[in-house]
Write a structure and sequence with these properties.
Blueprint lengths: L3 E5 L6 E7 L2 E6 L8 H11 L3 E4 L3 H6 L5 H6 L4 E4 L10 H19 L3 E5 L5 H13 L4 H11 L7 H8 L1 H6 L1
Parallel strand pairs: 3-6, 4-5, 4-6
Antiparallel strand pairs: 1-2, 2-3
Helix pairs in contact: 5-6, 5-7
InterPro entries: Prot-tyrosine_phosphatase-like (IPR029021), PTP (IPR050561), PTP-SAK (IPR057023), Tyr_Pase_AS (IPR016130), Tyr_Pase_dom (IPR000387)
Pfam families: PTP-SAK
Protein name: Protein phosphatase
Length: 176
């Protein structure tokens, strides 16, 4: 199975940064529409065929790029959609933390079963990198190895110390 791939259609198009995790593919990308082509980005996501899409952007961010109907649009592509809005440059707020366990379970189940999971935030770096790294660790990867693999594909992944602390999980948080 491939180690990593960056998949883009053409100049300026949405780029999906993917890597093998468990028996599936876990990827991150910017918010559909962030580059000015909401419909084209959705078509690219459809072609990539994720079974689950996790949106880390706020509703205001989605509306600003023409994605007011993002959840419905993703679901119309035959993908499950989960909205976990986190403010930019932040770790998950309490309401997202409460939703994390079942979302994590669903994502890990998809990956172990050979599925594709796509996570996005505004730029495809901090918030999405935080969630991708957390999922890699929850799937059994050592944190340092997971971070190195992730940053080999997306160097900007995980932008703040607070995001890194959350991504490393409860055992790491207890030691910091």
């Amino acid at each position: 199975m491939m180690q990593s791939e960056s998949v883009g259609q053409k100049e300026g198009a949405l780029v999906i940064h993917a890597l093998s995790v468990a028996d599936g593919i876990l990827a991150l990308c910017p918010l559909p529409g962030a580059g000015g082509n909401y419909r084209g980005d959705l078509d690219h996501i459809h072609d990539w065929q994720p079974g689950l899409v996790i949106s880390m952007t706020t509703e205001a961010e989605q509306v600003a790029v023409g994605g007011a109907t993002l959840g419905t649009d993703i679901q119309s592509l035959a993908s499950r959609w989960v909205h976990l809005p986190v403010p930019d440059f932040s770790p998950p707020p309490p309401e997202v933390l409460a939703k994390w366990p079942p979302v994590s379970h669903m994502a890990r189940k998809a990956l172990v079963g050979g599925g594709r999971v796509l996570v996005h935030c505004r730029g495809g770096c901090g918030r999405s990198g935080m969630v991708v790294l957390r999922l890699m660790i929850e799937c059994g990867e050592k944190p340092a190895v997971a971070l190195a693999r992730l940053r080999a594909v997306r160097p900007c992944a995980v932008e703040t110390p607070e995001q890194m602390q959350w991504a490393y999980g409860p055992r790491r948080q207890a030691h910091n």
